[in-house]
Design brief:
7-stranded mixed beta sheet; 15 helices; Aldehyde Dehydrogenase, Chain A, domain 1; binds nicotinamide-adenine-dinucleotide; alpha/beta; 2 domains; about 45% helix; Aldehyde Dehydrogenase, Chain A, domain 2
């Protein structure tokens, strides 16, 4: 049956009834499901995934392989290798005051979970968290974004092919469906999207005290000093900024480059973009903006920049017929320009220069804490100073964006850029309740400390306070 014909509350209750079966599932049973998902993405539906992404925003096949399919397969392989150890109870020491007992904690499934995902990496950001939820033994309702309809339709087919809806169900719909789902008392909500909607999700979660993971966005800076190799730095930044047409939560949002090397760095950056895309509108390696709304938002940013004295030194071309925005570099922006206020989430890169390191740090700290902060420098003390005096969800030194691909690193934001962590064991833990268990084997010393509190008992309490 199509999940869309199911009512959210009906699916929710069927999953609620089924949750203990899943939370008691074995490691082998969970791995079986993960392998089925891997096969679907890497074999059965691989070509359809590429086609869906091409239809949704002309995403090049190579980018779909690298940023939609590969990260989920990597996440699955890692979980398959590690799941047995993640599921093991963890013994801990017991203090002398609790003599005769032993203690451990274990990761049990949270129960019925909701995953709300965005459009910019639909497969990656829907199935990625789903891998962690399955590994942890949960039932899940998934609602992908309405803005990438081809991806959402295919994901529904895959989910229905692999899972019963009382275990995992994918419901398609827009804001109204998301809001209907958010009325339900989920045990955990995993949301990836904008900080604005993140606040709505957290408010709704508060009604039921559902726990939340919020994977949000923001303005991620790149700081470049004068010790770097311009060519390789420019190449890495150009790749990190313009992949997926700049529609990447982790993409460099703006560059802070040391004044004395601004020009050579910009020259290399322009060379790289010429090499990457030549004529971007004709290039098979360059995608499109997801829809008219986001195209208009980005076109308005470019107009606003020009009105605010911005100097478009590369690109700046747009074509509304095809939601095309060329790779664009803008310098000399006034601080009030919209590009320096809002998360850009598109192929426009503002350049700001600084003379002293403290200026760059002050600028970064004048904005909400970013999802990522990147530093390019050969000087250890420079990188150390920037990292020590700023906060960010993650950082990369001498590269950008790739920290996302290390499953051994927790991924997430801080305050405005998010709450909680995903990937690898951190994703497994996010979808688990850490349950503490203490087992009393013999008579407990605390039995000597129960009321009525006689003088002798007070002496025992004094002794306990002094020695244990
Ligand atoms: P969005 O917040 O508009 O939408 C995300 C999801 O929320 C969608 O499923 C959508 O249907 C739903 N939604 C939208 N409005 C809602 C409302 N009023 N109430 C309830 N649900 C609602 O985000 P988007 O435009 O799809 O994605 C772009 C944003 O996501 C950017 O800010 C980007 O930085 C962020 N992002 C973060 C990460 C990360 O891992 N931290 C990854 C990708 C994207």
């Amino acid at each position: 049956m199509a999940s869309n014909s199911l009512k959210p509350s009906v699916v929710f209750h069927s999953q609620k009834d089924n949750q203990y079966k899943l939370s008691n599932s074995t490691c082998k049973q969970r791995i079986y499901k993960l392998k089925a998902l891997k096969k679907a993405l890497s074999q059965t539906y691989k070509d359809q995934v590429r086609e869906a992404m091409y239809k949704d925003f002309k995403k090049p096949f190579a980018e779909t392989d690298l940023t939609e399919i590969y990260p989920v397969i990597g996440e699955i392989d890692h979980a398959i290798l590690q799941l047995k150890s993640w599921m093991k109870p963890n013994k801990v020491n017991t203090p002398l005051s609790l003599l005769g007992s032993s203690s451990y904690y274990t990761y049990e499934a949270k129960g019925v979970c909701l995953i709300l995902s965005p459009w910019n990496f639909p497969f990656n950001l829907t199935f990625g968290p789903l891998v962690s939820a399955i590994a942890a033994g949960n039932t899940v309702i998934v609602k992908p974004s309405e803005m990438t309809p081809n991806a959402s339709k295919l994901m529904q087919t895959i989910v229905e092919d692999l899972f019963d809806s009382n275990e995992i169900a994918l419901l398609q719909g827009g804001v109204e469906l998301a809001q209907e789902l958010l009325q339900l008392p989920f045990n955990h909500i995993f949301f990836t999207g904008s900080p604005t909607v993140g606040k709505i999700v957290m408010k709704a979660a508060a009604q039921h005290l559902s726990s939340v993971t919020l994977e949000l966005g923001g303005k991620s800076p790149v700081v470049i000093d004068d010790t770097v190799n311009f060519k390789s730095t420019a190449e890495k930044v150009a790749w990190g900024k313009f992949i997926n047409n700049g529609q990447v939560c982790l993409a460099p949002d703006y560059i802070l480059v040391k004044e004395n090397v601004k020009q050579p760095f910009l020259d290399e950056l322009k060379n790289c973009l010429d090499k990457f895309y030549r004529n971007a509108e004709e290039s098979e390696s360059y995608g499109r903006i997801v829809n008219e709304k986001h195209f208009n938002r980005l076109a308005a940013h470019i107009e606003n920049a020009k009105e605010n004295g911005g100097n478009v030194i590369y690109g700046g071309e747009t074509n509304a017929k095809d939601n095309f925005v060329s790779p664009t570099i803008i310098t000399d922006l006034k601080p009030e320009s919209s590009l320096l206020q809002d998360e850009i989430f598109g192929p426009i890169l503002p350049i700001i220069s600084f003379k002293k390191t403290s200026e760059a740090i002050t600028y970064i700290n004048s904005k909400p804490r970013p999802l990522a902060l990147y530093v390019f420098s050969k000087s250890k003390s420079f990188s150390k100073k920037v990292l020590a005096n700023t906060k960010a969800g993650s950082s990369c030194i001498n590269h950008n964006v790739i920290q996302y691909s290390n499953h051994n690193l927790p991924f997430g934001g801080v305050n405005n850029s998010g709450i909680g962590r995903s990937h690898g064991v951190f994703g497994f833990q996010e979808f688990s309740n850490m349950r503490s268990v203490l087992k009393q084997h013999t008579k407990s010393p605390t039995e000597f400390l129960i009321p009525p509190y006689s003088g002798f008992k007070q002496k025992l309490i004094d002794f306990t306070l002094k020695w244990f």
